[in-house]
Amino acid sequence: MANPSNNLLLCLPFLAIFVQAMGSRLVPLGYQSIDTTWYDGRATFYGDMSGAETMQGACGYGNLFEQGYGLRTAALSTALFNNGAACGACFEIRCVDAPQSCIPRAGSIKITATNFCPPNYTKTHDIWCNPPQRHFDLSQYMFTRIARYRAGVIPVSYRRIPCWKRCGVKFKLAGNPYWLLVLVFNVGGAGDVADVKIRGSGGEWVQMRRNWGQNWATGERLVGRSLSFRVTTSDSKTIQLDGVVPGDWRFGQTFEGRANF
């Protein structure tokens, strides 16, 4: 019987472009690079140093420690969140142009988008997360790596960067016999998943739809069938993970593919 939590035969950081083995392969498609241009924005923080308030965010990742994201996370403003499509994207951020707030020679931090910073249209000032502001609400731990706690809000320079994740893409299964919800996480490369297809053993590929964050849903009845996935990130790179989930799977279990981007 397969390990219900993970397939840990190959737990190494690697690029999908080199993978063509063990039931996983890169599907050749035209792809584009992520935009790594530096942009101006602002940043605040929420929660305390424990990061408890950053858990269970709008991307659906749940316990960020268990899923490998830890405290290196941020909630994105409306302009950046893109209705959840940006969940999983990675950013490099540095504090700029605020000598009273920025920590000297602090360098930059690297975070993953795991939550949404909602707008507040009742306010007329400090409207950091309202459109069209490009804003990062960081964990307190990450904010205080680049700025003094008392600063509260800081000007930043930020850019997209590739995500580097250990081990394979992971899939957490939820739902009921008539409806399957799959959380896709621990995604390398561009990080933000743009499309997911699923195939039950003996069947055809079925298009899944984004339900919320990085939770993808289908009404296909797949209980008792082994499952394969095709995952496409925002840079149009696609990886096919065959037989990731054995036929005796149960709701609530997490499985790991043998490749990553």
From TrEMBL:
**Which topology term describes how it sits in the membrane?**
Peripheral membrane protein
Task: List keywords of the entry alphabetically.
Answer: Cell wall, Cell wall biogenesis/degradation, Membrane, Secreted, Signal
Q: Which Pfam families match?
A: DPBB_1, Expansin_C
Q: Which CDD domains match?
A: DPBB_EXPA_N (cd22274)
- Residues covered by the Expansin-like CBD domain: 178-257
Q: Which GO terms describe its biological process?
A: anatomical structure morphogenesis; plant-type cell wall organization
One GO term describing the cellular component? extracellular region
The cellular location(s) given in this protein's UniProt record come to: Secreted, Cell wall; Membrane
Which residue positions does the secretion signal occupy? Answer: 1-23
Query: Which chain positions lie within coiled-coil regions?
Result: none
**Is this entry keyworded Secreted?**
yes
Which positions fall inside the Expansin-like EG45 domain?
Answer: 56-168
Record keyword Secreted present: yes
Q: Which PROSITE patterns match?
A: EXPANSIN_CBD, EXPANSIN_EG45
Please describe what this protein does. Answer: Causes loosening and extension of plant cell walls by disrupting non-covalent bonding between cellulose microfibrils and matrix glucans. No enzymatic activity has been found.
**Family statement:** Belongs to the expansin family. Expansin A subfamily.
Identify this protein by name: Expansin
Q: Its encoding gene is what?
A: LOC111014136
